[in-house]
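Problem statement: downstream parser choked on a complex file, so we are re-checking the raw output for the 2-acetamido-2-deoxy-beta-D-glucopyranose run. The parser issue turned out to be on our end (a line-ending mismatch), but while we're here, posting the original submission so the record is complete.
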Amino acid sequence: MILRSVILLVAFCSLANQANGSPATNTNKQLVVYWGQDSAGSLRLTLEKGLDYYCKNYDYDIIPVAFLNVFFDTANKDKFPGINLANHCNTTFKGYPTLLNCTDIGQQIQTCQKSGKKILLSLGGAAGLYYFSSSSQATQFASTVWKLFLDGTSKIRPFHNAVLDGVDLDIEGGTTTYYADFVKAIRQLMNTDKNRKYFITGAPQCPYPDAIMGPGGTNMVLTTVPQEFDYLFVQFYNNYCSIDKTKFFNQSIASWFNFAMTTKQKYGKGPLIFIGLPASPRVNGYQSPDVVRKAWQTVKTNESLGGFMLWDASFDMNNVISGQHYSTIIRTIMNDQYKSIHHSVTDFFYVIRVRGDGNFFTRVHVSHALLLGLFLVVFVLLLAVMMRMSRHEKLLSVKSQEVKVSGDKKYVPLGFY
Ligand SMILES: *[C@@H]1O[C@H](CO)[C@@H](O)[C@H](O)[C@H]1NC(C)=O
Ligand SMILES: *[C@@H]1O[C@H](CO)[C@@H](O)[C@H](O)[C@H]1NC(C)=O
Ligand SMILES: *[C@@H]1O[C@H](CO)[C@@H](O)[C@H](O)[C@H]1NC(C)=O
Ligand SMILES: *[C@@H]1O[C@H](CO)[C@@H](O)[C@H](O)[C@H]1NC(C)=O
């Protein structure tokens, strides 16, 4: 009896869990999401919420905070870096107009870390001003990042007491040189703190090798110190190698896997590869869950695969498919529990949703039955109109023949085709 109640309770809990849209994780694969740029905000969707909101309500494992986008900002005292967090923090330190003072976010980072999330600082981004002009400058920058964001000490700490779990290099512009010096220096500092495991990650583009990070050129960071990277969040979007282009995707992912594997063989350690996807239909390279599942099936057994990365939290929040956030569906795919969620009639609406704003059908919770009803009514109406038209057309064609006889050629047939 007790056993049965327990079984029932467990069954109930797992059902409730499914209804919540957060199935238990049963693989060691991880889900990464960028937070801080509020990409949805610029498209007038719902604004990105605070970091702690996502740690509490979403099933992410690693969250890079984006971005530290200026390495040496002459507007700041001591040429301290500039950070940009879109709508999230609007107070700065006196004398450092682009260095944000975000006590609240600092507390949220600590809350997130207590629940097991890894919070990284992402350096670079698509817009910013960053490069190193010498090896010593790169080493000095590592020391600044250590003091401002990691376990070092400084009066100026944008996230106060919070010690971030590492740094992410999202280098999409500038020069290729001296990043290896930065990585070596920051890894050395990380090794001085025995209480914590720190992460160094990168976000190259899917074409292999990456134009800036490599591997390839003699001074590129992935050529020189590939073994110092824990994870690579490869961006499979805005490029020809998105995961639906299977030929190019196959080539790209095989190259990245091979890079990870050979690094591990050579150094005894190396990066895991993550498949980076946009979380919004508005971004070039977005993939429906069915396409993601197909790609997953072809790569999931590779020991170099780390999981998925999503750009970004705000897009994920705005992308609800059949009541589930995109990231929740990605998690079910990684757990091999995904069942295709779009059926015949709703497929039609799904296409509209994917092509358009992505909001109407997700905000208005129209039940599938209602959609089907609507569809049938429209169909019957259309049929009725067409039947009337064809009768009308017959009449017209009789008339036009009459006109032809009189030599007047003004008749223009109706344009149904
Ligand atoms: C700064 O952020 C706070 C908290 O989010 C907000 O209440 C305030 O209106 C913002 N101030 C400005 C000038 O944007
Ligand atoms: C940073 O902001 C907090 C309030 O959020 C304030 O108490 C503190 O004095 C500020 N720090 C500096 C150095 O300006
Ligand atoms: C890509 O790889 C998968 C699995 O290895 C394979 O089934 C598929 O045919 C490949 N596609 C192309 C276009 O090469
Ligand atoms: C992982 O990918 C690499 C590179 O394509 C390949 O050599 C290796 O066999 C793959 N491993 C598995 C288990 O599929």
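For whoever reads this later: The chain is about 40% helix and 15% strand.
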